[in-house]
Amino acid sequence: MPYDYTALEPHVSKSTLEFHHDKHHAAYVKKFNAAVEGTDLDSEPLEAVIKAIAGDSEKAGVFNNAAQAWNHTFYWNSMKPSGGGMPTGDLAKKIEADFGSFEKFAEAFKAAGATQFGSGWAWLVLDNGTLKVTKTLNADNPLTSGQVPLLTMDVWEHAYYLDYQNKRPDYIGAFLNSLVNWDFAAKNLAAA
Q1: What is residue 159's DSSP assignment?
Q2: How many Cβ atoms are within 10 Å of 83's Cβ, its own excluded?
Q3: Is 79 helix (H, G, I), strand (E, B) or coil?
Q4: Using CA atoms, how far apart are residues 114 and 155, in angstroms rounded to an integer?
Q5: Where in the chain do CATH 1.10.287.990 domains reside?
Q6: Quick one: pLDDT at residue 117?
Q7: CATH code of the region 14-77
């Protein structure tokens, strides 16, 4: 993670980050590394592996662990201490142009996170030059759809349950208001 376990408090607790990072994320990394050891996928970048095996039912386990390892690393970077608020610069202008306003983006992002049934992710992506909000189920991510992810919010229960119990909308609000790393999203937009 790009910060220590207490850096996101009080919005995400040390306990949640320890459990989430050291148990869930670490298990995906360990299982992925074991699954590809000695194979032609072993030396490939994680993004290339995800794209290459997406939809291959024989490699579903490898895909799930690869994508979850990638998704979680991306998620840690989508947050920062004293984050949140509104973006600035080119990203702010692009959100205004593509959504009509920051408020409309925020509504769409909150809705994507709140309506993702079960486990998954809410994303801000660049899709053929246009910003969109999307959501994915389980381990899936925008890389498999040819979209460029700019930021993500984990809506699996282990991301928020210790701190927010069944109040996913409260976690989503805290993510946007106090955690989101707009600098990371702007960097991803600039690189696209």
Answers
A1: G
A2: 19
A3: strand
A4: 8
A5: 14-77
A6: 87
A7: 1.10.287.990
Could you tell me the two tokens for 158?
């282990």
148-154/120-127 β-pairing = antiparallel
The string of DSSP codes covering 108-157 is HHHHHHHH--SSEEEEEEEETTEEEEEEEETT--GGGGT-EEEEEEE-SG
- What's the token pair of residue 151? 């930021």
**Full-model pTM:** 0.94
Please give the Cα distance from 92 to 82 (Å, whole number): 18
Residue 132's beta-bridge partner residues?
A: 125
Name the segment(s) of the chain with CATH classification 3.55.40.20.
Answer: 89-191
CATH dotted code for 89-191 = 3.55.40.20
Q: Sheet containing 130-137: give its strands across.
A: 130-137, 120-127, 148-154
* pLDDT at position 118 over 90: no
- Report the mean per-residue pLDDT for the chain: 95
| pLDDT tens readout for residues 147-177 | 999 999 999 898 999 899 999 999 999 999 9
